[in-house]
Amino acid sequence: MTRLLEPRAIGMPLERLDGHAKVTGTAPYAFEHALRDPLYLYPLEAAIARGRMTAIDTAEAEALAGVVAVMTPRNAPRLAADDDQELWLLQSEGIHFRGQLVGAVIAQTPEIARHAAALVRIAYEAEPHDAALAADRDDLYKPEQVNPDYAADTDEGDVEAALAAADVAIDATYTTPMEHNNPMEPHTTVAIWEGGVLTLYDSTQGAHSVRTTLAPVFGLAPDKIRIIAPYVGGGFGSKGTAHAHDVLAGLAAQMVPGRPVKFALTRQQMFWLAGYRTPTIQRIRLGAGRDGRLTAIVHEVIEQTARFKEFAEQTATSTRIMYASPNRRTSHRLAKLDVPVPSWMRAPGETPGMFAGEVAMDELAVACGLDPIALRIRNDPAADPQSGKPWSGRKLVECLREGARRFGWDRRAPNPAARREDGWLVGMGVASSTYPAYALPGSRATIRYGEDQRYVVRIGAADIGTGTWTALTQIAADALGCPIEAVRLEIGDSALPHASVEGGSSGINCWGSAIVAAARAFRGQHGAAPVPGAEIGAEMPEDPEAQRFAMHSFGAQFAEVRVNADTGEIRVPRMLGVFSAGRIINPRTARSQFIGGMTMGLSMALHEESVLDPRFGHVVNHDLASYHIAAHADIGDIDAVWLDEVDPHSNPMGSRGIGEIGIVGAAAAIANAAWHATGIRIRDLPITPDKLLA
Amino acid sequence: MYLRPSMVEEALAALAEGGPTTILAGGTDYYPARVGRPLTEDILDITAIAALRGIGERDGALRIGAAVRWTEIAEAALPPSLRCLQLAAREIGGRQIQNAGTLAGNLCNASPAADGVPCLLALDAEVELASARGTRRLPVAEFVRGNRRTARRPDELMTAIIVPRCAEAARSTFLKLGARRYLVISIVMVAALIEAAPDGAIAAARIAVGACSAAAQRLPLLEAVLRGRRLASGIGCLVAAEHLGELAPIDDVRGTAAYRREAARRLVARALDELAAEAAA
Fold first, then answer.
1. Which helix (H) or strand (E) holds B175?
2. Confidence band (pLDDT; 50, 70, 90) for B33?
3. What's the sign of the alpha-carbon dihedral B130, B131, B132, B133?
4. A with B: how many residue pairs have Cβ under 8 Å apart?
5. Which of A600, A634, B46, B116 has the fewest CB within 10 Å, making it most exposed?
6. ipTM value
């Protein structure tokens, strides 16, 4: 068993240590770092979805006062590695998707740069493109693996025989649309090229991972690139990897050595340059006995990737672990399209997959005449169905029961469309939630005892609004056995010890483990009364328990939905999430993350849809006026609670990640509640009023 | 040229010379359509013209200056017949948009989804258009000609919206249906105004629907049916599909044409029921 910390600071609802700086505007985001003599970049973007550029006329732009340089494939610096085509910019005339970065204007002001970019004329030779995902395409293919490294397909038992023999069967297709992450802070990079060193002030979820990615692209040794990102205004996965804008800024900086080049994407550009969630088409078949016990689960996923770079979302992987069944098949098939490459968006895989899976379970409950909670409890597996390993702590049943008690589930009528209040149909729905406890290798922390009698704790971790500054300080305080005030944390810089990316809800697990290892090494070496200057570093140890246990977080999502009988308008007056995620390091910031995830799930359920026009390969509703996210007025009483528990196998804090599980299952709970309110089963997100006015 | 005069005459003179082609008030439609691009046309900014400000009575009618912002409309002490316009004022974007955007701009921009238009149709409002040649008035229904089309001539400036005095008993309401609860472009909106006698008999009914045709439309067939009926519970049941024949909704990302038509019928019924409930209270 992992040696657990004695919790003193952890578990306390400490206010954000960076809160004051943020609300007073003194916490610098990427664009805001005060740098001498900056220049501004505005990109040139491809106006066709596939083909090549045949001519670029930059004369008018170059003649404009204030323009310093116009960069195109003709004069751009050379890059060194082309294995990531998303980052292989300006090295050829080829066009892979509409909006692709094909050049840049560097100018004295952002306005001049943008105006000059509009004066550049590009001639194209267009080739026929293909941007329409459909289930009946004959070119769907099986990827070698799905994100991050799961098998594309699994097949256990004999699902066809089990389905044929099942007392009750469900066969339905669910779809989720293309969705865009849209953090408040746009993707931003300020690049400086000086003395053979490239420095990026970047809005990123991982200073080191950006460095690791970009070093070979620019042909630089890792120590010749530095990424600085102390404060980041949201990411939701879209800042988890380096994107093309980082490279464009880096190339531009090489054209104006010594001058900072500032580049922030516009909101519109974030609809093609920063990743998105693939649309999915998911067929689910369930077979069960009359008692609801599952005999077969089939989850077949069709989704898209870009022709020039593959990203395969792991949409069906949660189905591999959720419920017990002797027969199970999951598969992923992709269409290669002339579109931007999809990427991570909060709980990639689980979010769309658990929408389909958990609505299907609701349909099965109806077909079996069972309460949806009872159905889930009946199919709760004693061990991980995929690996056969014991769970480090699967408490889905406890979450469902606790949620039912708090939400007033016993007041729910067994039949749909049974409750009507003032012209509104009222229903309740439930869905399970899950997310894996990922551990990424390689995080390292150093601790130094300073002259000021404080411990300087250094690690290149990221705070993308999640509360890292605060939570890691709490962990360090307990690991060192000192008050919070005695800890001085430094994060957000690749010059600090290596940290894994803020992704897969793994940050606190990995960085916290490294800090605890460093603190224990420090006390071992320097004792309880160190001399100023005492310092030690340590790497996050391998967790031997990880091999013995299946580690996942679980949760139960509850929603009350009201549907206007006249217009189909949908309101969600109440949501409750009950989560089992190990020990909660900071209840205040954790609650914010859970509720934020649930809000994003509500937004996904009711609003979010990027409408891609296949004729142009272009998202039509590319701004926040027409790409709807939930407004404040759409949000009612959302509450998140968690089981009081410690995962003794995960890490010294006893915690698992919490950044993503809040969104998983939320959309399904709302869809299930909408069914319960109206009797109308919506299988295609988002659930808009027209779909409920049947 | 960016002209920001303080007198109407100055503005009209500039327009008469064929100067500015774009007239700017709050800029809440103009700015998002043009952000990031340099100005290439001449602008006439009317926000410094004191004569265009304020809401007041003149010749027995209510006069809303062309520079009056939504917030001022929402917060003004107005007769209950104008409640529809005040409700619409609270649904136009967020507070910051309401603080900048104007009713006159909403009319001149002439979006099919302009929230102000159905209200002004229900209020039988007119617009005042001034030019160096003189001043004329047009009913709003004649001013808004279609999607982004108005009857304003290039040398004319909208100076005011004139709302005739309604009967004491007139009551109005405004309902907006969008795909989210707030900050949303309308799928359908309805403005309804009813004048009822003390015994409940409807003396006049004026109902308008927006976002369901190139320009918001009154529903004369329904209005005729309502006249003489009693404003009482259940009145919404009188609304039938054939009353909405004037509407020509389209499919778009916000909703299908069929949904719009059905939702419009039900929203009109709801508006009437609300007015009946209010009258009964």
1. strand B171-177
2. confident
3. negative
4. 65
5. A634
6. 0.93
Mean pLDDT value across residues B161-177: 95
CA distance A672 to A619: 29
Our answer to whether residue A609 is catalytic in this structure is: no
Q: Is the pLDDT of residue A1 over 80?
A: no
Map residue B230 onto helix, strand or coil: strand
Q: Which two tokens stand for residue B43?
A: 């602008």
**Which chain A residue has the Cα nearest residue B93?**
A625
Taking an 8 Å cut-off on Cβ atoms, the answer to whether A689 and B253 are in contact is no
Record: contact B38-A628, CB cut-off 8 A: no
- In this complex, is the C-beta atom of A118 within 8 Å of any C-beta atom belonging to chain B? yes
Q: What share of chain B is helix, strand, coil (3-state, %, to 5)?
A: 35, 25, 40
Return the amino acid letter for B20: P
* Positive or negative: CA dihedral A69, A73, A78, A84: positive
Please tell me the CATH code under which domain A440-542 is placed.
3.30.365.10
Structural fold of domain A147-179+276-437+548-692: Aldehyde Oxidoreductase; domain 4 (3.30.365)
- Between β-strands A424-436 and A420-421, what pairing exists: parallel, antiparallel or unpaired? antiparallel
**What gap in Å lies between CA A519 and CA B158, rounded to an integer?**
72
User: What fold is seen in the domain A33-128+182-273?
Assistant: Aldehyde Oxidoreductase; domain 4 (3.30.365)
CB proximity B99 to A under 8 Å: no
Quote the CA–CA distance of A347 and A349 in Å, as a whole number. 6
Q: Which of B259, B267, B270 sits opposite A690 (nearest CB)?
A: B259
Burial class of residue B89 in the structure, from the number of CB atoms within 10 Å of its CB (0-12 exposed, 13-18 middle, 19+ buried): buried
Task: Single out the residue of B182, B70, B281, B156 nearest to residue A571, CA to CA.
Answer: B182
Contact A690 B36 (CB under 8 A): no
> What is the model's pLDDT at position A664?
98
Q: Residue A652 carries which side chain, given as an amino acid letter?
A: P
Task: Choose among A266, A632, A688: nearest Cβ to B179.
Answer: A688
Q: Which residues of A touch B277 (CB under 8 A)?
A: none
Confirm or reject contact between B266 and chain A (CB < 8 A). yes
Task: Give the rounded distance of the alpha carbon of A85 from its chain centre.
Answer: 22
Lowest mean pLDDT, pick from A144-148, A491-495, B102-106, B242-246: B242-246
Query: Chain A partners of B184 at a C-beta cutoff of 8 Å?
Result: 628, 631
Out of A114, A631, A689, the one facing B182 most closely (by C-beta) is A631
Name the residue with tokens 């204030």: A66
Which tens digits make up the pLDDT trace of A578-592? 999 999 999 999 999
The verdict on B62 touching A (C-beta cutoff 8 Å) is no
Q: Is the pLDDT of residue A447 over 80?
A: yes
Q: Whole-angstrom Cα distance, residue B224 to residue B205?
A: 8
- Own/partner contacts of B92-99, CB < 8 Å, gap of 24 or more, are B92/B116, B93/B28, B93/B183, B94/B182, B94/B183, B95/B71, B97/B26, B97/B28, B97/B70, B98/B69, B98/B70, B98/B71, B98/B74, B99/B69, B99/B70, B99/B71
Helices and strands counted in chain A (H then E): 15, 28
* Helix, strand, coil percent content, chain A, rounded in steps of 5: 25, 25, 45
User: Hey, what CATH class is B170-280 in?
Assistant: alpha beta
What does the alpha-carbon distance between residue A204 and residue A501 come to, in Å, rounded to a whole number? 9
Which residues of chain B lie closer than 8 angstroms to A609, CB-CB? 253
- Answer whether A515's CB lies under 8 Å from A461's CB: no
A 10 A CB-CB count for A420 gives 13
Mean residue pLDDT across chain A: 97
What are the structural domain ranges in chain A? 33-128+182-273, 147-179+276-437+548-692, 440-542
Contacts of B187 in chain A (CB under 8 A): 689
